[in-house]
Amino acid sequence: MTATAASAGAVPRASGSITRQNLRTFLSDRFGVLFTAIFLGFIVMAILAPWIAPHDPNAGSLLRRLQPPAWLPGGSWAYPLGCDSLGRDILSRIIWGARVSIFIGVVVVLIAGAIGTFLGLVAGFLGGIADTAISRMVDVLLAYPLLIFAIGLMGMMGPGLMNIIVALVCFEWVITCRLVRAQTLDVRNKEYVEAAQAIGLSPLRIMFSEILPNIVSAVIVVATLRVGTIIIIEASLSFLGIGVQPPTPAWGTMIADGRVFMLAAWWVSSFPGIAIFLLVLSANLAGQSLRDAFDPRLTR
Amino acid sequence: MSAGRDGPILSVRGLRTEFPTTRGRVVAVDGIDLDVMPAECLGVVGESGSGKSVTFLSMLGMVRLPGRVSGEVRFDGRDLLGMGARELRELRGRELAITFQDAQMALNPSLSIGSQILETLAAHGPAGSRRLFGRDPGQVGRAIEMLTRVGIPAAAERLRDYPHQFSGGMRQRAMIAIALVCNPRLLIADEPTSALDVTVQAQVLDLIAKMRRELGMSVVLIAHDLGVVAEHCDRIAVMYAGQIVELGPAEAVIEAPRHPYTQGLIASAPWLSDLTRELRPMPGSVPNLIDMPEGCHFAPRCPFRSDACLRPVAMRTAADGRQVRCIRPEAVA
Amino acid sequence: MSLRTLIERLLQLVPVLLGVTLVAFLMMAFTPGDPVEIMIGNDEHVTPEQIERMRRDLGLHLPLHERYFHYVANAVTGDFGLSFYHRRPVSEVLFERLPATIELAIASLLVALAIAVPAGMIAAVRRGSIFDRVVTTISVAGVAIPNFFLGIVLIMFFAVNLGWLPVSGQTPSGLNIPRVTGFLLVDSLLWGRPDAFVEVLRHLVLPAVTLGTGLSALLMRVTRTSMIETLQQDYVAFAVAKGLSPRRVLFAHALRNALIPLVTVIAIDLGSLLSGSIITETIFSWPGVGRVLIEGVTTRNYPLVQTAVLMFAVIYILANFLADILYVVLNPRIRLK
């Protein structure tokens, strides 16, 4: 064991690393694979938005104001899901809106994940003052419900895409940090870490090449599960009018815009609502089956 | 009392319990025939996983779905397996009581000892007393009396205590008091000592023996330890992989075991074997209960196995009345 | 739990509360733009001297740590500054709105429990049945429905289409209940006005259902899992073996223990309940803290936003503290420790 641990590349993998067996378990869960596929479909749709959206999401015409979906009287297949109050194509706006939602969801989780992982490793591995300081910060931020914290920050910084990302990252890193810290404490006293310390590897090297590979699957799983939450928060902020600003198409704003026409034109709000539901549902279920396959320890 | 005074209080024929699982069918209880006589103490011995507990839970209709129970179980002449849920419920706790291995797990942590004993009385008391639950002075008196009889000091004051406020031995006593509070005719004591310190084990066994004498009830003592059973039981049934492999008077079975499994058990038990002889741990382990071979279940571990052991082996009764599930002639000699 | 541990736990709250005020303070301190200029708005008659005086009054000339010290000192006395828009103390504006928010939160919690506990319990008892599958599916899907969308759909169906329930607000216009506690359900009864009580209740239904649904999805799953675990305990088997009725086994023995973990989950999830209340209040024009917070954000009413956010955090902390205590009370095993 000691000999292998000394060559940092060939760390003996604990249960927290990713193996082929995990992949096989994951693929055997049909339901999970289906929803992962739907989630990936949303991502592809978001990336390809400029090419697959049938219309310019912001090109409106009062002639098409509140035009119903294609299958209702007055609808046309040129605008399959109908048009909003400014005559803009709802389908195109949903496709572009996926871009905003997923971009924010993924970027926030990635940045926050990186910050949280680093601070969590530092707190868990170094301990002492670093741990106390980081843990206190985590405790305090956890005392804020995420949406409320974000609303507060948005209120101070003003609306906008970048501000949303900053506001959410400011809180979200806490989630990863707490997880990584706990996992690091778990792994810290394993033989291979002690061996690496004994041969005098630098703390930074130990954290990243000995500890991190063994906890990475847990981090990935939790990050996946958080994407859905972040997407809902972004949609909520946009719905409240303090998130993504018009004319950028965002699902939350679309729902808010369509609210007053709910009786006359249900489709304006309903389709973006269904889109959020499907995206969040598939993100959550994909995350759950990833968790079951890769890190059953995390199951509540 | 259709069975009369001399007939068995509990009579089991061909009891079989199986659980379908994704990997195959598990036959946890595989054709048990058994009688328990009035005022008798029957010991049931076997390694964990041999189906001892499931056998008795099956009789009480307490096997969880998707488990399936078949066969015939008669308690005092009444058919337990064909009985309606309500009738069976009235029998449980009142005539047929059971205690579990670990009182810490078997007592509800968030109810006081008093209410756990009183609810049993209320459930089996006259209809009116159910509404008086916990306040009927007769029942409270009975609860205190029972706790005192099992050796809980200052029982009246302890009614309000919760299980965690009792010591391990006291909890075991309290559980026994709860089981016996309705004067049952049969007590099934499932591993009553396994969870206890050695010092307390003997006290609890003595308590069960004392209660048996005082209440005149029958006792089935389930244990994985022959030593526990040897001292207190009239007869012993040895179970292996869902079957009874040997049944006979306690002394005879221990002094002259006939089934190779019983012989192995005794050879590996430090209390019983001759101190001059060395302990011989039995090779192998209890087989997987899924898709059990047709023949003798013990054959894979048996030092005497032959090809004939691959065919089903029936229980055989020797001239002296002892029963053994083995084809070797010396086993039934 | 002894008084000593209670006090110890209370003392542990102090650093967290300090930290939370620090975060709220920093949020404001790093806000781009000058609060004074925002307060003045487009008023051109204000002289530079007046601006300077206002800055001094607000303590903006002081170094950051001194400003924080003043902030905490003032906060302890309940002084959180003036609401720009209302020209009244922020604390007054917020405390006025607090009962409406609490009323909504409690009602939503009750709705969530009323749905989740029976559903989760039956699903656990009939594990693997169709009912169980439906409950499990709903509990997964329910979390993914954004509650602002659900709110709109509910208004659409029950208020607009069917006309059974009011669209928004806390009372019908014209109904005036003099304020006693601020909780309209309580006040209407105190004044002996059952008609008003019914009206207030009718207004409460849709917002409470909107807010309660998301929570019930989670609680359903927790109840089911916890109940399944409890039903496998020896004490349940022992209760059956004693010959107790199924009802007594289920309610007195199983459910009682199965619900203990629910307390902790509710406390943890109170964060999303509070978050959700902001959105629900906005959709239903419910006059609570959440709605005033959003108004504050859109009108850049910084002291109000800062204090409202702080208020939610403090409520959340206190609720978790209470849940800790409740957990101990409900769980005799750890009561003595």
Explain what this protein looks like in three dimensions.
The complex is a heterotrimer of chains A (300), B (333) and C (337). Chain A is mostly helical and 300 residues long. Chain A has a single domain, classed as MetI-like (MetI-like fold, Orthogonal Bundle). Chain A contains 12 helices and no strands. Mean pLDDT of chain A is 82; it is low at 1-16. By secondary structure, chain B is α/β, with parallel strands linked by helices. Chain B has 2 domains: 38-62 and 78-95 and 186-195 and 209-331, Rossmann fold; 103-183, no CATH class. The model of chain B has no long low-confidence stretch (mean pLDDT 81). Chain C is mostly helical and 337 residues long. Chain C has 2 domains: 18-76, no CATH class; 91-330, MetI-like (MetI-like fold), CATH 1.10.3720. Chain C has 15 helices and no strands. Chain C has helices spanning 3-29, 35-40, 48-58, 64-76, 90-125, 130-144, 147-161, 184-190, 194-231, 234-241, 246-258, 260-283, 289-298, 302-330, 332-335. The longest helix of chain C is centred in the middle third of the chain and has 38 residues, at 194-231. Chains in contact: A-C, B-C. The B-C interface holds B 57, 60, 62, 89-94, 97-98, 100-102, 105-111, 119-120, 123-124, 162, 164-165, 175, 178-179 and C 233-235, 237-245, 248, 252-253, 256-257, 260, 330-333, 335-336.
Radius of gyration of chain C (Å): 24 Å
Name of the CATH homologous superfamily of the largest domain in chain C: MetI-like
The dominant shape of chain A is elongated
The residue ranges of chain C in which pLDDT falls below 50 over 5 or more consecutive positions are none
Broad shape of chain C: globular
The biggest beta sheet of chain C reads: none
**Average of per-residue pLDDT values of chain A:** 82
- Name the poorly predicted regions of chain A: 1-16
Give the proportion of residues in helices of chain C: over 70%
Compressed to H and E, one letter per element, the order of chain A equals HHHHHHHHHHHH
DSSP strand content of chain C: under 5%
CATH topology of the largest domain in chain C: MetI-like fold
Strand tally of chain C: 0
Q: Tell me the distance between the termini of chain C.
A: 7 Å
Question: For this structure, what is the CATH class of the largest domain in chain C?
Answer: Mainly Alpha
CATH-level-2 architecture of the largest domain in chain C: Orthogonal Bundle
Tally of discrete structural domains of chain A: 1
CATH topology of chain A: MetI-like fold
